[in-house]
Specification:
Blueprint (H helix, E strand, L loop, with lengths): L10 H13 L4 H11 L4 H8 L3 H14 L18 H12 L2 H19 L8
Helix pairs in contact: 1-2, 2-4
Length: 126
């Protein structure tokens, strides 16, 4: 198999990679992959040193080639939890405190009513 190509690394990128190794536990092995490859190590040699699968090693090299440092650092997602309004909370409490048989009856009425509506039949024609 031909060697996995790694583009030239600038000094700033190299310094950033060392910083990542010191400060980002999740991306440290990725930075190590890039640094080792830049020093001339093959994918197989890198695998023996860091004990990760060849495909993962190649993946991070390709991501670095395409996106630089951003390609190997995990993006933090700042998802906010959906807000539960008072109306939603009341519905949750009602569902939780209602007899399951009653809930089934309501669900059955909704489904069968919806089925009649979908077929263009009125409820009275049943």
């Amino acid at each position: 198999m031909r060697p996995t190509y790694l583009r030239d690394i600038t000094e700033d990128e190299k310094n950033n990679l060392y910083d990542i190794m010191d400060n980002d536990a999740e991306a440290d092995y990725r930075a190590n992959v890039i640094l080792l490859r830049s020093e001339g190590y093959t994918v197989a040699e890198i695998r023996r040193q860091i004990n990760h699968h060849d495909n993962n090693i190649r993946k991070w090299i390709h991501r670095f080639n395409g996106h630089g440092i951003d390609g190997i650092v995990s993006r933090k997602h700042n998802h906010t939890a959906p807000k539960i309004t008072d109306d939603i909370e009341k519905e949750i409490v009602w569902i939780a405190s209602t007899n399951p048989r009653k809930l089934f009856e309501i669900l059955h009425m909704i489904i069968t009513g919806f089925g009649w509506i979908c077929y263009g039949k009125e409820e009275d024609s049943r």
